[in-house]
């Protein structure tokens, strides 16, 4: 079950990274979206690290 959750977290992180790359083309327009995505990625990475350390 942990493997499934880890895989889902990886997929979410990858999707957010792709989204951020699109936003980076116009950072002055998408500043808030970039910040929000960055915070979400940080949270997901922290969850991933907690799960892998068990």
UniProtKB/TrEMBL annotation:
Instruction: Return the InterPro entries for the record.
Output: HLH_DNA-bd_sf, Spo0E-like, Spo0E-like_sf
Record-level Gene Ontology MF annotations: protein dimerization activity
Please name the GO terms of the biological process aspect recorded for this protein, alphabetically: regulation of sporulation
Q: What's the name of the protein?
A: Spo0E like sporulation regulatory protein
Species of provenance: Romboutsia ilealis
């Amino acid at each position: 079950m942990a493997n499934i959750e880890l895989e889902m977290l990886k997929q979410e992180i990858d999707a957010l990274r792709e989204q951020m790359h699109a936003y980076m083309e116009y950072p002055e327009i998408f500043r808030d979206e970039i910040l929000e995505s960055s915070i979400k990625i940080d949270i997901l990475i922290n969850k991933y690290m907690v799960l892998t350390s068990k």
